[in-house]
């Protein structure tokens, strides 16, 4: 499907979601998921009002266009951010055995490798 047709299709799905949550999934032929979103959307409208209706509609639309619901998208974004922070964080140097560190003799003005510890 061309990009222009895809954008028009997504626009129609979005308008459909404002009328009834689950519309975009029904348009995709995913009848069970669409029917579930319709039922949950109606229950959310009764219990939570327009915010519940909107959340179910947003989840249905996200699931239709990306095959991931809102929770999956948020989890993916959090994981991506965590991985990006790990890549940017400075790596700690490997632990160095104190016996391997050089010892400075201030009197003689020399630096020598420490003698191995005796057990």
Structure commentary:
With 119 residues, this protein is mainly α. It is built from 5 helices and 2 strands. It has helices spanning 3-19, 23-27, 31-48, 50-66, 70-88; strands at 102-105, 110-113. The chain has a two-stranded antiparallel sheet. The mean pLDDT is 83.
- Stretches where pLDDT is under 50 for at least 5 consecutive residues are none
Number of strands: 2
Count of DSSP helices? 5
How much helicity do the residues have?
A: 55-70%
| Sheet with the most strands, sense and barrel status | 2 strands, antiparallel
The assembly state of the depicted protein chains is single chain
How is the largest sheet built, in terms of strand order?
Answer: 1-2
Strand % is: 5-15%
Structural class of the secondary structure composition? mainly alpha
SSE ordering:
HHHHHEE
Mean pLDDT across all amino acids: 83
Q: What separation lies between the terminal Cα atoms?
A: 74 Å
Instruction: Note the overall shape.
Output: elongated
Radius of gyration: 30 Å
State the main characteristics.
two-stranded antiparallel sheet, single chain, 119 residues, 5 helices, 2 strands, mainly alpha
């Amino acid at each position: 499907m061309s990009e222009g047709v895809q954008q028009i299709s997504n626009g129609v799905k979005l308008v459909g979601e404002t009328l009834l949550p689950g519309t975009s999934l029904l348009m995709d032929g995913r009848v069970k998921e669409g029917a579930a979103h319709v039922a949950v959307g109606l229950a959310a409208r009764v219990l939570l009002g327009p915010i519940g209706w909107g959340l179910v509609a947003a989840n249905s639309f996200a699931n239709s266009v990306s095959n991931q619901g809102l929770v999956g998208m948020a989890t993916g974004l959090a994981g991506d951010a965590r991985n990006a922070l790990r890549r940017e964080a400075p790596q700690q140097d490997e632990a160095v055995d104190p016996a391997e560190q050089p010892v400075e003799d201030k009197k003689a003005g020399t630096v020598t490798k420490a003698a191995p510890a005796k057990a």
